[in-house]
Amino acid sequence: MKIWLLRHGEAEPQARRDADRRLTAHGRKEVLISAGHLSGHPIDGILASPYVRAQETAELVREALGLDGAVHTAPWLTPDDDPRDVLRFLDGRGERNLLLVSHQPLIGSLAGLLVHGSRSEALPMNTASLAELEGEFPVAGLMRLVSVYHPRHH
């Protein structure tokens, strides 16, 4: 199984609610660059936080890769959700190659939990950073970090 963890691209600094912040032009560019690193990899599904910036990020990736399936909204992928809850939701899924689009601190803590078995060893994830993990099952401490890509920030 492969899981790709993608943090949303750069977003507007403010909106009426944090969940409503949209991607900036720079953020859209960052996402497309990161999407290029997914090219050629099979993606069976995309799950994204309900926040606007994550939905926009996921849709940009879906379009860039030419994927037919819809982006699925996962209400348990918001910034302050518990990565242990994410593992519980992933446990019942059938996809072998899954892209999760979320936020900090969740995305870094989730990577740390999957690779090291601990949320305290979070993986640093900038905007549009992409981490590739693989293993038999999405279980704490049993996945291997294959690669991390951080777009350059100017």
UniProtKB/TrEMBL annotation:
Native organism? Pseudomonas schmalbachii
Domain of life of the native organism: Bacteria
Taxonomy, top ranks, is: Bacteria, Pseudomonadati, Pseudomonadota, Gammaproteobacteria, Pseudomonadales
Task: Note one Pfam family from the annotation.
Answer: His_Phos_1
UniProt protein name:
Phosphohistidine phosphatase SixA
What SMART domains does UniProt report for this protein, alphabetically?
A: PGAM (SM00855)
What InterPro entries does the record point to? Answer: His_Pase_superF_clade-1, His_PPase_superfam, SixA
What gene, per UniProt, encodes this protein?
sixA
